[in-house]
Specification:
With 256 residues, this protein is mainly alpha-helical. Helix content is 70%, strand content 0%. The protein has 12 helices and no strands. Helix 1 packs across helix 6 and helix 4 crosses helix 6. The longest helix is centred in the N-terminal third of the chain and has 33 residues. The two termini are 29 Å apart. The relative contact order is 0.15.
């Protein structure tokens, strides 16, 4: 969320958005990839838990889980993408608070801190409801988002690092490290650009290895690091297909 806050600063400096335009932009960059990736992993879930093994969960429950997006309440086919809807809400709330503060930095900071503390206090309630899209996480995420926003605003030398790694509001620290600190290794830069693909598919593939046969389950249990490394390498062609031909499913243009 801190890196995304920094990316938000860059984006808003380069182009002015009204609220509706921002909603459309972030829906394309965050909600659309969330839906498309979960739609694909939904079919992997069917293979893993309805064909290769048995799950009490129904298909309707999994579709509902995708929409609800809170694994504490109900598990979706790819829980690793939970942060996309949460980040979407965080950006919109931050925008509204920023507008309310009329750009006054101290007032913005105070408002975000108040929301964050209130959110933390509410989260400690043992009877708190696990809301959709991790709404309860948004107030705390706002603080991290604000930190990233202010750091980039006041420390210009970080801009070079982030401009080379930004991706429509979702930037991961891993992506920055891979894309900036090791520029000579093209494959690492490629993986950095496609972090979201790795996040979406690694867990369903691990589950597939566990359920496809007792032998593969045993190998996975005895050699998890080796298996994880193979999955990591195996996802390279998948990421390539998304980058080259299916960029639209991730809310971005395909890379020629």
């Amino acid at each position: 969320f801190m890196i995304s806050g920094a990316a938000y600063y860059l984006q808003m400096r380069a182009r002015s958005f009204d609220f509706i335009a921002l909603v459309k932009n972030k829906a394309k960059g965050l909600l659309w990839p969330y839906l498309t990736l979960n739609f694909i992993t939904f079919w992997i879930w069917i293979l893993n838990f309805k064909i290769l093994s048995h799950s009490e969960s129904t298909l309707a429950e999994k579709i509902y889980a995708i929409i609800y997006s809170n694994e504490e309440y109900i598990e979706s086919p790819s829980n690793a993408t939970w942060f996309l809807p949460t980040l979407f809400l965080t950006i919109l709330v931050f925008y509204l608070v920023q507008k309310w503060s009329e750009g006054e930095e101290k007032l913005l900071t105070l408002a975000v801190l108040v929301l964050g503390v209130a959110g933390y206090v509410c989260s400690q309630d043992p009877d708190a409801v696990d809301l959709p899209w991790h709404i309860g996480t948004v107030p705390i995420a706002l603080i991290m988002f604000l930190v990233g926003y202010l750091v980039l605003k006041h420390i210009g030398r970080l801009e070079h690092f982030l401009e080379s790694a930004k991706r429509q509001g979702v930037i991961f620290i891993v992506s920055v490290l891979l894309a900036v600190w090791v520029p000579k290794f093209r494959i690492l830069k490629f993986i950095g650009r496609n972090t979201i693909v790795y996040l979406a598919f690694h867990a369903p593939l691990f589950r597939f290895i566990e359920v496809v046969s007792e032998r593969t389950r045993g190998i996975f249990e005895r050699h998890p690091v080796i298996v994880a490394s193979l999955v990591f390498v195996g996802l390279i062609p998948v990421a390539y297909i998304f980058e080259k031909y299916l960029g639209g499913l991730l809310g971005r243009k395909s890379k020629k």
